[in-house]
Structure formats: structure tokens, C-alpha cells
Amino acid sequence: MNALTRPHGVRSPEPPDAEGRRAEATHRPDTAVRRRSATVTLVAAIVTLVFGVLALTLGDYPLTVPEALGVFTGETEGFARTVVLEWRLPRAAVAVLFGAALAVAGGVFQTLTRNPLASPDIIGLANGSFTGMLVALLLLGGSWPLLTAGSLVGGLAAAVAIYLLAYRDGLQGFRFIVVGIGISAMLASVNTWMLLRVELETALFASAWGAGTLNGVTATTAVPAGICVVALLMLVPLLVPSLRQMDLGDDVARATGVRVDRARLASITVAVGLVSVATAVAGPIAFVALAAPQISRRLARSPGVPLGVTAAVGGALLLGSDLIAQHVIPLTVPVGVVTVALGGGYLVWLLLHEGRRR
Amino acid sequence: MTTPTREVGSDAGRPPARSRSVRLVGAAALLAAALLPSVLVGANLLPVPSVLDTLLGGGTAESRFVVWDQRVPRTVAGLAVGAALGVAGALIQAFTRNPLADPGILGVNAGAAFFVAVGITFLGITTPFGYVWLACAGALVLTVVVYGIGSTGRDAGPARLTVTGVAIGAVLSGLTTGLTLTHPDAFDRMRGWSAGSLLERGFDVLLPVLPLLLVGLVLAAAVAPSLDSIALGADVARAHGVDVRRVRIAVLASVTLLAGGATAIAGPIVFVGLMVPHVVRWMVGANQRRILLGSLTVAPALVVLSDVLGRILVLPSEMPVGVVTAFVGAPVLIALVRRPKVSGL
Q1: Total Cβ atoms within 10 A of residue B58
Q2: Would you call A340 and B170 a contact, using CB atoms and an 8 Å cutoff?
């Protein structure tokens, strides 16, 4: 049924001469993976916490750690309080939540399609919301709320179009992806064309947004977006059991009593929702959805994508990237530029490390 | 591991070899039909007889310039770029056994783009002729790096290479975006280059690249017979007596030369290499040699036709071919994949 051929995503094919290790890979006690997953999640959470404290203290108006944390106990008053509560905290919180959201959405897509290259970026969501944003910006003269609305509408419209075009006697993974590629390519062309036709400054602004940036995040956008993301993330544990079965193939899943079509539709809806919310507020932040699941799988040495670990890793990745984008790089760059470099770099490092270990 | 490929729709089972050959001939006819308007049509509205006269050696100075210095090189460029991308796409999809793989998957496009961006920003290079060398160098360097990292350890399988290529490509595209967003001049030129265009690609741009493409095509032809085995997985290929390592290196070299050369000429036109092999697979079945042959004819037809459309759609301006290909190709792709039973790889 599913034409995407590798049952466990990109797990590196076992070397043909290492029968022992192959056996180990299939019969490895589940507890080892679970323990490693817990460790990785814990480490990622601690890293996120450290990054979070940094995010509250660093900036044009530097604060000490006690000052920044004093906001929560009521000891810090005045401007410092405003800086932390109105600007830095929403931005940091959104970074963590969006990172987790994108990562989980990517993990869901990769599990569903059993393809490591499948992420919501590829099936048109990112390009769709960029198109929506460009239309809002160029034709309607965009303010932030308008850009957000445009991006939300664009992303969802792309997703719905792909879904409708791909639906035929149920939803088949391969067809879904190919239709996604097609729509995605058309939207990308529209975007390229629009960017070519406008003034340089407008194009620069739009491209920065198109790379994904948290610069526009304030408390007003952060709170509703955060609530949506948390609500959607809470649905994910309900999906995990059927996802795990579907990772073994539709037939296996059916045999174990999973209603495959329904489970798949529910999973896609949740994943699309997660990405849409994040993209509407922050633009299509690239690569978190693709890299975080892969990084998590390799760290936990798990055969499938461990979604809990992925969420933690995604949060840490986006928050860390945003810190770098804001405070390390002298010029202002959108966070999306850093996520690709950091996520990609870390993935390369992991691959190198794996290579050496073997 | 590869699901046995089913044939498409109404021709379930195996369509007679003759109907597949007919389709291949049809593809070739389509290509021939695309070449004609590419020489005849353009922003400079020459009458058809004058163009034909010029092609046969006559014509005025102006018509000779338009035909011989603009349209013919441009048509050759479209032909070369299309053929290269189609074959590279077919090779990489068979090799990685992943329908989402495009010729840029090994970092070729990201490397080319990065080098071009660096060249524009720091070296002040601003001509297509200069871009060619930068793009070629970028594509080659990147593939070597990807292969170097992706083949560490003993499991230099396609899956590992894919992820390595995606990861390194991402790092570089991040650097490129960061670089261009902070240098408005470079951004301005890069938005033109990265759209993918055949404008002003004269023979001075083409000639240095054509040998690379030829070597790439020869390599592709050399590995073609082993591809069916490779597409079934390394173990099966070995059982068939294929020297997997050698084929892999040849495939990678071929894809790099073809995709790198095409990108050097026209900029990144990703969609062609991604889409054409799918369409051809549905046309001729899962025989890799036929897919290669079909892609070799359908892809240039798509590129040349898109280029012609791009010239006339927004007169007097011009729409870059990279923008048009998606609009010509995607509807076909979607219409085909919606048929009742469509095969995967």
C-alpha cells in the first residue's frame, strides 16, 4: 500500500556483514530505549531552562539572574518587569512551544509517511502561508495582524487543497506527498515571482519573514498562540498508540484494531494545526520539523520517532536558535536562518559521531 | 523492502512492450515539438519565414543576432538543463529509493547557491559566465563533503547519504539566506539567480559546462543496467552480482555533474528533477532504463516549453523558466497521481 519504502524512516541500513548487530537492533529491550529517551528529554528540558533564563536576562537592557527571576516573586518592579513580562518571556515561551509544535508535527508526518524527508514544510504548508503572507503584504498592505491572518489562511488553504486533491478512496501516503510536492512547487513559484516583482526593500522584509522570525512576537500574539499549541500538543499522546502501529505498516495496524484512515486523518489534522499556528505567528521557521525528529531518534537510538523526546529537542533547538539570532550574531537575522544552520550542523555532527562509533 | 511495483490503472499487469515504446516515441515527439517554438517565438517578434531563412544561413544582421546569439543557445541550454535534471532526478530516486528525493538532495543546489552568493557578495561577480564556475565549484565541493560524511563507517547506504545531504544543504542554505538578507545587493541578484532562468545563457556560458553534462550522461548510461537491482536494495543488488560500491560512486558522480552543471547554467530548477521521473515511471513502468530514457526526453521538453511560455506570458517582461515549470508540470503530476492505482517506486 504505502510506496514509501523504508519502514523505519532513515534508520541507516544495517551493514550486511553485521548479523549480530542487526539482531540486537530488533530485539533490543524496549526499556533501554525508554531509559535513554527519558534521559534525553530531561537533558533537553534542563538545556531549555538554562536557555530560558538566558533569554530573560540578555538584551539591550541587561538584567541579572535574580532580577529577571524576581519578576515572578514580585521583587522586581518597574521597567525591568515590563521588559521581562511583555517582551522577553512571551518570546522565549513562544520559542519553546513553537519549537515543540513544529518538531512534533514533523515527527507525526515522518511516522505517517515513513519517510524522513516528509515534513509539513514539504507538503505545502510553509509555502502556502508564505503565499498568504505575501498577498497580505503586497496587495492589502500588511500590518502584523493582517500578515498573521494571511499566513494562517494561506497555510490552511494549501493543506485543504492538498487534502482534497489527494483524497480518493481514503488517503494514501504516497499520493498525499506527491500532490503536496506539486502544490508546494506551484506556491513556491508564485512566491518567487512575487518577490521578483516588488521593490528590493519589500522583498527583503518579506524574505526575512519567509525564513521565519520571532521578532513580531508580543504578549498579545503569544498568549492565544500558546494556548492553541498547548491544547493541540495535549492531543498528541492520544495519537501515539495508533501511530506506533501504523509505523509498522497499515496492514499490521489494521490487524491490531487501529482504524487506519481515521487515525491518519486525526494525526494529520493535529500536525497541520500545530504548524499553522506557529507559522501564522512566526513565519515558516525552517527545518525544526525535519531535524528535531531525526536528532531525537539518533539520540534515543530509537527505531521510530519518539515524539516526547522530539518535542523537548524541538523546544530547546528553537529557543537556542533564537538566542543566537538575537544576541550572538551582530546583524539582525531571522531565527529560521539559525535553526537550519544549527539543526543541520548538529545533525551532521551526530552523523559523523555515529560513523566513528561504528 | 521495496514494495513490488504495480502497474498503473487500466494497464494493470504488464502493458505490452510495444505500447511503452510508443509512449517513449511520443515523448521524443513532444520534445521535437517543443524545440520548434523555442526558436520561432520570442520577445523580438520576427516573422516565421525570416527565422527559417536565418536558420538556413540568410537573414539580416538583426535576425541573425536574435536567432543565433539568443534563441538557439537558449534552446540548447534548455535542452541540456532539462536532460541533465531529468536524468539526475531519475538516478537519485532509484538510488535513494525515495520518491521525495530530487537532484538537489546531495547538497548540489545548496552548495551552488552558497558559492554564488559568496561570489556576488565578496568577489563582486555578477555575470552568468561568472556564476557558472562558482556554481560548479559549489556543487562539486558539497557533494564531496556530503559523501565524505555520509560514507563514514561501513553503512554508507543511501539513507544515510540522504540525511547527510539534507542536513549539510540546510546549513548552507541558512548561511546563504543569512548572507543575502544582510547584503541587499547580493539579495537582489540572488533572487534573480535562484528563480532559475535561461535568459542571457549564450554559448560562452554553455560551452564550458556541456562537457561536464556529457560525462554525467555517459556515467548514467553506464550504471543504467544495474539500477533495477540497486532500486531493490543493496542486498538484492549484491545477490545479482552488482558491484554496489562502484555503482554508488558512479551514480553520485553522475548526479553531481548533471545537477551541478544544470544549476550552473540556469540556477536551481528543482521541480523538474523531482517530477519528471514520477510521470515517466507511470508512463513506461518500473524499468529503470526506460525511466532514464523517458526522463531524458520528457524533462527537456518540459523545460523548453516552459521557457517559451515564460517568454510570452508577461510580455514585454519575462517570467523565469524556474517559475513556469511548476505551473506546467504540477497540474500534470497531480492529475496523474489521482488516477485509481498509481505505483510508487
Answers
A1: 11
A2: yes
